[in-house]
Amino acid sequence: MSKEKLIVLNRQIDAVILDMDGTLIDSTNRWHDIDKAFFNKRGMEIPEDYAQKIVHLGLTQAAKLTKELYGIKESEQEIMDEWHQMSLDMYRNDVKLKPGAVELLELFKKHNVQLAIATANDDQLYMPCIERLGIGKYFSYIADVNNIKEGKHSAKIYLYLADKMSTKPENTMVIEDMPTCIKTAHDSGFFTVAVYDDASKNFDQEKRSNSDLFINSFNDLIELLK
């Protein structure tokens, strides 16, 4: 194992926090299909900015917002149960890693960089996915907004994981795909890498403005780290 410190754009990186959906795994377009089906079932078109409104929230907070904002008659629990059933098979059987993900994780491990996951998803969905993909071995910590009790519009989840890994924000890389989360991490002093994803392609300029580095794929970051 290399003992050399990992330096990225003149910043020492001691730990990395990765988002899951749209960053580590290719799932955001599938979630769009679920959201579209959810609203269509109720005779509604999916609101244009819906994904941006809920992406940083956990399922509980997202269900609350959806019910209140769009007048859904079902209870918050019923909304969550519906989402859960619609997405369970997807996470257990279908969702794939983004290209280059394993090579990137191996590269971080080679440099003795600690790794953690910060997600707005539910553990009943992401844990079977992590196990099926065989990537759990890479991560020292996994945190979700349901445990932290605050969405990713707040830096609480990133600060929590940095504290767990005993690293400072300025020496901790956060890799995210959604503009709200990118800005949150960047404004809190983390070295922030914005990842291109089809679901948020209309926000690329915003993502570039609120990050230290913008990448089109993990291969861009791999080439930089080699």
How would you characterize this protein structure?
The chain has 226 residues and is an alpha/beta fold. Helix content is 47%, strand content 15%. It has helices spanning 28-40, 50-54, 59-70, 76-94, 101-110, 123-133, 145-148, 156-164, 179-187, 204-209, 218-225; strands spanning 6-8, 11-13, 15-18, 114-119, 141-144, 172-176, 191-195, 213-215. A 6-stranded parallel β-sheet has the order 5-4-3-6-7-8, sandwiched between helices. Helix 6 links the parallel strand 4 (114-119) and strand 5 (141-144). The longest helix has 19 residues, at 76-94. The radius of gyration is 17 Å and the shape is globular. The two termini are 14 Å apart.
Please give the structural blueprint.
Elements: E1 6-8, E2 11-13, E3 15-18, H1 28-40, H2 50-54, H3 59-70, H4 76-94, H5 101-110, E4 114-119, H6 123-133, E5 141-144, H7 145-148, H8 156-164, E6 172-176, H9 179-187, E7 191-195, H10 204-209, E8 213-215, H11 218-225
Parallel strand pairs: 3-4, 3-6, 4-5, 6-7, 7-8
Antiparallel strand pairs: 1-2
